[in-house]
Amino acid sequence: MSKRIGFIGLGNMGVPMALNLHKAGFYVTVYNRTYEKALPLQEHGLEVAQSLDDAVREKDIVITMLANDEAVEEIIAGDDGILDYIEAPTLLVDMSTVSPDTSCMLADTAKEMGITMLDAPVSGSVNSAETANLVILAGGPKEAFDTLQDVFQAMGKASLYFGENGSGEKAKLVINLLLGMTMQGISESLVLAEKFGLDRNIVLDMIQQTTVATPFFGFKRELLAKEEYPAAFALKHMLKDFGLVLEQAHKNGSVLPATSAAYQSYASAANHGLKDMDMAAVFAELLHASGVKK
Ligand code: NAP
Fold this sequence. Notes:
The structure is a single chain. The chain is of the alpha/beta class. It has 2 domains: 4-163, 3-Layer(aba) Sandwich (Rossmann fold); 170-289, N-(1-d-carboxylethyl)-l-norvaline Dehydrogenase, domain 2, CATH 1.10.1040.10. Helices cover 53% and strands 13% of the residues. It has helices at residues 14-23, 39-42, 52-56, 69-77, 100-112, 126-130, 142-147, 149-155, 167-196, 200-209, 215-226, 235-252, 257-274, 282-289; strands at 4-8, 27-31, 47-48, 61-64, 91-94, 117-119, 122-123, 134-139, 156-163. Strand 1 (4-8), helix 1 (14-23) and strand 2 form a beta-alpha-beta unit. It binds NADP nicotinamide-adenine-dinucleotide phosphate. It holds the Pfam family NAD_binding_2.
């Protein structure tokens, strides 16, 4: 019998991930805080749960893909949370990006109740989620990681095991530091070009033709050219991740001066109403700060 999966959190990432699990032949029940957002998945043949209880009971695996620490704590360990309903041997897999400390705390709480939990955040945005090309970064008991290979293969092109609980989240912060800094770097280059009066499209062509071009640049190029930022990876989530990076860096003594500076750019962008736009909107913030009006 195919594995039964409860999938909780149907945002930009959760929807394509749940759909890919369904396409791979798993029996998927989805749940979302805002029920209406789950309904379109019914048309694709997924079961939509009206309660967390229904999403969690009698499943082999429960996956969460939620916004932030607050959401994950509430849904897993809050009143009427997953831990009120889940029973061993169901595995609990949190794929959201949250603090490694929160992840460890929740894994410990789950363990006290006999539940095995893994952290398995993902690298790759909506496009990678849609095409099952995510890179999954896992922490937790290795045997559980091994049994999840078929599930991870349905959503991603690779799954990397980093060790004990929390280490998947640590790896995620490492890669997202680079992601946020890359966006900041591209944006600053483009601001300088703008102030020089260079043609933006030719500058974008130049970047594309050189060794600094990356697939990531390719994904964001159109947004930067048009200054339109529909969210694939919302700026508020990048800001959250930079906050988590700096919190961990403060604890472990990493010196990250450029990350601190980039954090300020994303924070200003969020304060200027850009938080729900794509992270590439940090370019809009830097243009504005540089006195370049559209
Ligand atoms: P999103 O579109 O903002 O969706 C967030 C989800 O969390 C929604 O289902 C939302 O439910 C739910 N949620 C938020 N607060 C909640 C609460 N207090 N209680 C219950 N549910 C709550 O986020 P996303 O882009 O899918 O990202 C999800 C996670 O993956 C984040 O941690 C993000 O950092 C990470 N991530 C994102 C990307 C990306 O490119 N988007 C890539 C890699 C990793 P409602 O619908 O009810 O609001």
